[in-house]
Structures are given as structure tokens and as C-alpha cells.
Specification:
Helix content: 40-55%
Order of helices and strands: EEEHHHEHEHEEHEHHHEE
Oligomer: single chain
CATH superfamily: Vaccinia Virus protein VP39
Number of helices: 9
Strand content: 15-25%
Radius of gyration: 18 Å
Number of strands: 10
Bound molecules: S-adenosylmethionine
Shape: globular
CATH topology: Rossmann fold
CATH class: Alpha Beta
Distance between the termini: 34 Å
Number of domains: 1
Length: about 290
């Protein structure tokens, strides 16, 4: 991936460099505005890719390979693997966002655009939604999908790493990240960046797989995700490995209370979470200071 330039004029303004229908790559800022140094592992040079311990520098590439591989079948697989329930989780997130006409929204790790598609009508022509993702295959599918549905006027697409966002401080009214945070190498940096780009009082929403509250449900879910999911991945997408990574990455992700603590350390206030489907998924909400 080539990072060519930084965005000096943010998207969603008439003269912006990024408009619906184009992808913009953004240079990494040399220094983050508000870095948080919370060690996720003892050795900052090592991290997890699923259950594997890998060099930190390799994780972005490995995660990139997964999403390049699944991009074309991503939406179909989401519906198949969740029985369509992911749509209800996403609708719940939108309901909690408080997004309204005129708002600027950033959908981080937005992938194929499920949240952007729901939020664009809510912000209207006076607002905008920026769909940002590190992976150009996912972004391309998302851009085509939204364009096919006629959602173009108030949506911008930016290729960017959640850990180093190419947006000014205090720019957005709402930042969402759905099923993206667990793939990010330094989650603490991504949370700090979300906090930085939000206006004071702005809402951050993290929708992510979490820890089932009931042990029996946990057992059933383990069985499903380690035995059934990779097989469906193999049959439908000819890709068992990516769906094994999905199951492992879910298990390595911080549980509800740990993620809430991380959000507080990143600077958010009034942090809370909602368990969905018995805690298989949790929606975390925080308010920017
Ligand atoms: C499971 S998909 C979720 C897509 C979408 N948000 C949804 O809910 O359907 C995870 C997305 O996170 C993106 N991603 C992974 N690491 C990222 C990073 N460091 N910065 C931005 N996006 C990232 C992937 O490219 C992928 O599109």
C-alpha cells in the first residue's frame, strides 16, 4: 500500500480531496496528537494475530491478507455466519449514536459500508459520513455497494489506519468502529485517535465481539465458531484460514470490562456497554471530553 499524501482538507466539504466515488490514501502523521501508552503485551514488538504471536510490524500485513481474501464474499458470509443478526446489532448501534441531520460521522474500519449506508440518510445533505478503512479491497466493495444504492452525495471514502487518522482534532460528532477494533495492532492508539477527532461531547461507539455471559452459551458458541465457521468459510468462500482467524481473533479481544477500562484510559468519559445476544457482541459507548 502506498501512502502518498496527507489530507489537508478533510472530506465532506465541497472542495475536499475526497469525495464519494474516489478513494484517498492518507499519509501517517509523524506524531499522534494524544498517544496513550497502555501495553497490550509485555513486549511491544510482539502482538497477536489470532492465537499466533507475531512481530508487531507483520500484523497489518497479515490482517490485510485476510480482508483482501474475504472482501468479495464478506457481506454474504456475514449474513450466513450470523443468520442475519449482525444487521440488528448494527441497527442498535445506530439508534444509540444520536446521529441527526448536519452531523459529521466517521465510520472507522467501515469495510463494505453497512453502518455508512444506515447513517447517510440520518445525517442528510447537510451532514456527511466518512467511511475509512485500511484495506482497499474492502473499501472498493463498500464504495461500489453504496454507489449502486444511490448513496453518494454525503459519503466520502478514505484509506487510513485507525491508529493514525488523517483528520483534524475535534472534527466529528460521532465515530463508530464495528467489528474492526480487534484487528487493530495497537487498540489503545486507535481509541486515542477516535477521542482526538471527536468534538467535545461527541459519541464513540465500538461494536465488537465480546465474551458470552452464560458459560453454556459460551461453550455452544465456541463449538460453532471453531468447528462450523471455518467449514462454512471453506465451502462458500474457499477460505478456511480467514474464518479460523476470525474465531481466534474474537477470543483474543478484550472482554467487556477490559475494553471499557481501555476507553476510559484513552480519554472517554461516561463509558458504558450493552451486551447483545448474551454478550457474544457488546456495544461500548463513550463520550469525548
Ligand atoms: C470485520 S470487518 C468490519 C467491516 C464493517 N465495519 C462491518 O461491520 O461490517 C473489519 C474491517 O477492519 C478493517 N481494518 C483492520 N485493521 C484496520 C486498521 N488498522 N485501520 C483501519 N481499518 C482496519 C479491515 O480492513 C476490515 O474492513
Amino acid at each position: 500500500m502506498v501512502w502518498t499524501r496527507s489530507i489537508t482538507q478533510p472530506p465532506c466539504q465541497p472542495s475536499a480531496t475526497t469525495t464519494a466515488g474516489s478513494l484517498t490514501s492518507a499519509a501517517m502523521p509523524a506524531r499522534m496528537a494524544s498517544p496513550v501508552t497502555v501495553a497490550a503485551m509485555t513486549d511491544r514488538n510482539k502482538t497477536h494475530f489470532g492465537y499466533r504471536e507475531v512481530d508487531t510490524d507483520d500484523k497489518v500485513r497479515l490482517v490485510g491478507e485476510v480482508f483482501h481474501s474475504v472482501a468479495r464474499r464478506y457481506d454474504l458470509m456475514n449474513d450466513l455466519l450470523s443468520g442475519g443478526i449482525h444487521r440488528l446489532w448494527k441497527r442498535f448501534a445506530i439508534e444509540l449514536s444520536g446521529v441527526r441531520p448536519g452531523h459529521r460521522v466517521l465510520d472507522l474500519a467501515g469495510g463494505t459500508g453497512d453502518l455508512a449506508k444506515l447513517m447517510a440518510p440520518k445525517v442528510g445533505d447537510s451532514g456527511c459520513v466518512v467511511l475509512a478503512d485500511i484495506n482497499d479491497s474492502m473499501l472498493s466493495v463498500g464504495r461500489d455497494r453504496l454507489t449502486d444504492r444511490g448513496i453518494t452525495r454525503n459519503v466520502g471514502f478514505v484509506q487510513a489506519n485507525a491508529e493514525a487518522l488523517p483528520f483534524p482534532d475535534r472534527y466529528f460528532d460521532c465515530v463508530t468502529i464495528a467489528f474492526g477494533l480487534r484487528n487493530v495492532t495497537h487498540k489503545d492508539n486507535a481509541l486515542a485517535e477516535m477521542c482526538r477527532v471527536l468534538k467535545p461531547g461527541g459519541v464513540a461507539l465500538v461494536l465488537e465481539f465480546s465474551k458470552p455471559r452464560n458459560p453454556l452459551l459460551g461453550k455452544l458458541y465456541d463449538n460453532y465458531s471453531f468447528h462450523v465457521m471455518p467449514q462454512i468459510g471453506k465451502l462458500v468462500a474457499d477460505d478456511e484460514e480467514s474464518y479460523r482467524y476470525l474465531a481466534e481473533s474474537i477470543r483474543m479481544h478484550p472482554d467487556q470490562d477490559t475494553l471499557k477500562d481501555m476507553m476510559e484510559r484513552a480519554g472517554f468519559s461516561r463509558c458504558e456497554y450493552y451486551n447483545l445476544t448474551g454478550g457474544i457482541v457488546a456495544l461500548h459507548k463513550g463520550i469525548a471530553p
